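hi support,

uploading two proteins for the ticket. first:
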Amino acid sequence: MQKDAQLFDEKTELERKLGLPETLSIVVNRIIGSGIFRTPAPIMFITASVGLFYGVWIIGGLATILGALCYAELVAMMPKSGGPYVFLKAAYPPIVTFLRGWAMFFVSETGAIAAVSVFFSETALTIINPEISKYTIAAVATILVWLLTLLNSFGIQLSGRLQNIFSLLKIGVLTIIIIMGFSSGIHPENFRDPDLSQTSGWAGIVAIFTAMRYGFFAYSGWEGATYVAEEVKNPRKNLPRSLFIGISLVLVLYLLINTAYINTLGPIQMGKAKVVAADAMQVAAGTIGTLIITSAIMVSTFGNVNTQLLVKSRTWYAMARDKLFFGRLSTVHIKYKTPNNALYAQALWTTLLILFSTVAENAYEAIIDYFSFTSSVFNVLTFASVIVLRYKFPDKERPYRVWAFPFTITIVLAIQLIFMLTTLYTAPLPSLLGIILTSTGLLYYKYMVPSEAKLDTSGSADRGLSQ
């Protein structure tokens, strides 16, 4: 029962230096990265319809908000660093928790860092030479990862200040892009679908959920602040607030900026774009527009990689602390109180993924396809943990409760399950690769994880579903 209590208390050896502004900045920085500048093009190409295009963004936004309701209940009840790893730890047997953490490290979370780093590098180097080598792109992406890793090893307070700076810069730049997208007036003809682009019925539903993996990637990261829960002041209040405020702000910005893209380019030209934001700003303002959007992408992706490196390293630290991962990753720097070994291991594997991506024709999209299915499997388990924990711990304090339970969670799970099956159907080989890498964790769990860590410590409280 002592271990049960540790799941719900606020004791930590880390320093609580992050207030609501820094926590909110982490949410904004984690969501706004490369996605909104690039993924609208493949989403429009797949859906081939303005209506279905908006459907992807609206359904994705709805799922994100409903998912945040679930996370708000979980993190307010368990303000521990590690994000979904902590929630799974409380809800399921240790092997489930371990596999989620293993998949996060080797597939999904480092994969997301690699994708955004590659996009930053592509954007920066294309200015110098449009025919730049993909190996040069990989080299610059790797340098970015290690530079920011070193910066994050000098204390959470410095990292928090960087979050505030980059979140304000991102919001300002996106606002400029939205204004420029309407600078030549409103063009209603660009919001009409070409005759041959109509998609309806089941084909339309499949198109929406096929494109959703790029939409979810653009929204991904909203849970980022929960990874650093042990470094947040008053976490039971500040973490739920940061989720709701941050996601709402980004949702509004995304709808506005996508409308600006369509207004400027129209659906056909938008679907053909490689970097839709750059094409839109080239049309809107010529060379000046290209310069602005290039600067915006670099600022946004730089800040996003920084935030990802900061928050995700806390999961590997939490896993190692529980003896479910490489033991040396559980150490904290004596002076700066940061999990530096976890940061360095994260950077090393991300580097290998960046190098691996050079074999793909479109590295950015390939990385997203690689981790989408695996992520969705564990997302389903994480959202379902709200139900499991209400059954296992009905009497634990819940400063926030999911609104309209259980209908909210039912909707979230339905969207995630449909997305998961569609991703497996439309991207089978990348999905299979993610599954194989996740499965390798079973060998580590069997031979390397000590017996005491395999015991189910998630509690055996009085049973009874808490409404």
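and the second one:
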Amino acid sequence: MATNRLVREAKLAKLPIAYVGRRMAGRGRRILGGSPGDIERDIQLRTAEHVFEVLGDLKGCAAKVGQMTAVYRSLLPFDAAGPEWAELAEAVGEAMGRLQDSVPPMLPALVHQVMAANFGPEWRSRFRVFEDRPAAAASLGQVHRGVWRDGREVAVKVMYPGARIAVESDLNMLRGVTGIIGAVMPGADVRAIVNMVCAIVGDELDYRREAAHQQVFADVYAGNERFSVPNVVECADEVLISEWIEGVPLGHLIASGTPDDRSRAGLAILEFVESGKERCGLLYSDIHPGNFLLLQDGRMGVVDFGACARVPENFRRIVFEIGDALYNGSHEDLEMALRTHGFVRPGQEFDVRELAEIVSPFLDVLLRKDFRLSPEWMREQVAAIAKIRLSNVFRQMTLPPELTVVSRAALTCMGVLCQLRTEGPIREEFLNWWPELAEVIRRYEARDTAPGVRRIPPMRAGGGRPGQ
């Protein structure tokens, strides 16, 4: 174990050295008349492949980075810089996205060792069938298919041996290479993404916690006509056994589904996340295509509850007061709400007008009865944000720690809905679970009809179909 870690640390240490070497070589090629654009793309592609190769050793942490990258990369405005950058983004995205599947499967003997350590030497007696070949990869382990002793088909999630010991070291190493990852993902806030991974991955190592959360959802959604959550069958420290559900992963729908099917799936995901907060008191925040399955009976299956968390007690109040300031208040009201709830530190200078301009386009989502989310729409917003010095205003702000999981859920949910090109009554579905915001919007719309009323922050001028 120690030897393996030293090898991985040595590989990571070479990343910045290799990157500097490529830069120096690039300067030489430019002196000899090489095209600066071609040289830059070559440097970035080589760095992307090197990062992929090295991070492939980081098992679950790398897989998490890959999962999140697969969502975020489709939303970044690379194409605004020209078609060559769009091609580069796709190549880099493919290299980073492969991290999800980069971990080699455990050999059967090692799987058996983990099962015996958790359930005793007679662990096979619990199963009628246990398939040694993994059916799927999990971020910190792998999933095997089996038949439980009572005849139920089950999914057996087995954690990689030593994962808990290795993950903390891996997270520290990931923090050390965010600058290099950023070099191959222009426009992405890689440090924020990696810090988010570091904040949540520890909870995902606690299978007993995950099992408890999953069963809460399974009980609440039992017999539901729209959603299916598998029951927990048994759980140990490093093994979680659930009922098996068969379905088509959401990624297939993103790639080849009809617009209507994609929109139905997007609205269903939004409904599940919002209804889960109300019905279970838990926020499901691991929102990426691999965790949603389309079942034959038309329902949506949901798996992997390792990243759930209790909703902060004052969350509804925070959303209401900031939302009311955005739609019905002044810049001063918005700044007061943000300072009151800890988004701006006491005494910190804060450009509230810049923030108002940044968030203004996003307010349209709750002002139109039918809205279309898409990667192009999100890229347009990100590009506009970049033009008004994103780094300045957000350096003045902070995220209250208790809202970390909420932030992750909001960003990843928006990302997946954009990937699906969700179109339709997004406003209605969201406000159905937020009566306080529904009242905010009602008052806004009533005020907007009065002559001389100025909306704050200012909305964008111009026509066109929303979301295009």
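thanks. also noticed: The first strand starts at residue 127 and ends at 138.
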